[in-house]
Amino acid sequence: MNEVLQNIKARRSVRAYTDRQVSAQDLDLILEAAAYAPNGMHYETWHFTAIQDAAILTELNKVIKGAFAKSDEPRLRERGQSETYCCYYHAPTLVIVSNEPTQWWASMDCACALENIFLAARSLGIGSCWINQLGQTCDDPEVRALLTRLGVPQNHKVYGCAALGYESANTSQKEKWIKEGTITIVR
Ligand SMILES: Cc1cc2nc3c(=O)[nH]c(=O)nc-3n(C[C@H](O)[C@H](O)[C@H](O)COP(=O)(O)O)c2cc1C
């Protein structure tokens, strides 16, 4: 199997991280890989906002929890009230992937970019996980105010985030298999 295929098969979502920060050089490579992803009509309307400041990430988690606390859904309200809930698993880096919601494929552009982020990270020995909570909360007024302060364009929605960092040594990953019936080949 070639290195690209090996890298694809070896990637897993990482949900426990050490404090070690992703270097500036590696972050640049990962963000460049993101911006090389395919995107509809090659409009490149997306934006990548990378945060490596632990205090800002804590603040972001707090406003997300604040938005959840206002939800009608009991499960989300519970998260909002939890002392320990951290949507980004205390990863040292979070990349917010946003786009103009004007094109119906905006989310697809972001999904392509996120997969490039995950695979680029994996190739550099860096763990990652898709973090979805800003998708539900980015239009909450407190969340939006912080996103704007961080540089997320005001006319953008957040379609996903990537937590990035080094996997804690004491985590175990589930074995992965392809569900039966997933693939059809017509020849
Ligand atoms: C659209 C999407 C949203 C996701 N949101 C989250 C999330 O908010 N938190 C999380 O821990 N994992 C999230 N994941 C990761 C999935 O749970 C994970 O990819 C799936 O369980 C398969 O495991 P693997 O990534 O290790 O192969 C998301 C994945 C996708 C594609």
UniProtKB/TrEMBL annotation:
This is Nitroreductase family protein. The keyword NAD applies. One of its GO terms (cellular component) is cytosol. Residues 8-166 form the Nitroreductase domain. It comes from Caecibacteroides pullorum. One of its GO terms (molecular function) is oxidoreductase activity, acting on other nitrogenous compounds as donors, with NAD or NADP as acceptor. GO terms for biological process: 2,4,6-trinitrotoluene catabolic process. Pfam families: Nitroreductase (PF00881). Keywords: NAD. InterPro entries: Nitroreductase, Nitroreductase-like, Nitroreductase/BluB.
